[in-house]
Amino acid sequence: HANDNHLSRTMGGNITCYTLKCSYLIFFPRHPIASFFHLFFRISAIIIYLFCDWFSKSFVACFVVIIILLSCDFWSVKNVTGRLLVGLRWWNQIDEDGRSHWVFEISPNKNSSTEAEARIFWLGLIICPLIWTVFFFSTLFSLKVKWMALVIAGISLQCANLYGYIRCKVGGKHVISTAASSFLGQHFIQRV
Description:
Blueprint: E1 8-11, E2 15-19, E3 25-27, H1 32-50, H2 52-55, H3 59-86, E4 88-94, E5 100-106, H4 115-141, H5 145-171, E6 176-177, H6 179-191
Helix pairs in contact: 1-3, 1-4, 3-4, 3-5, 4-5
């Protein structure tokens, strides 16, 4: 094979591909800092949750640190890493009538991210809520009631981003209103 002798080449001007004799392809992310922070906050929250007793004997300190990490993760994934790593962004806005609308933004540039970045993004986005779900059942069956609120917050923040990005990926060209939010918004406005 003539291509096996080339150690590096540029594919489409977007990514550098290193080809080894055994034909493994190694892709380097274009946004290494975004890739790092996409995983850093969520993995740090999980590690601190697992080893909290080693770091501190204070439940409150562990709770606050984990909530801060989960909040930083939610914000960075929703506003930064989703846009850089997969070209997607979502948000929820409320119109003048009090109706809630999901708004999705898809980058028109299909080559804005690499396949490696997309894998990092989606694997982190899918696996971490599953881990928090395992923590939920572990907490439930071990009757560690004080940790339940933290685990529910972890599931909520992780699943909110997962839900938003799945809706963005699947139905990103449409602005989608949620019936429940619009009903609650109208009900609230009528009461006021």
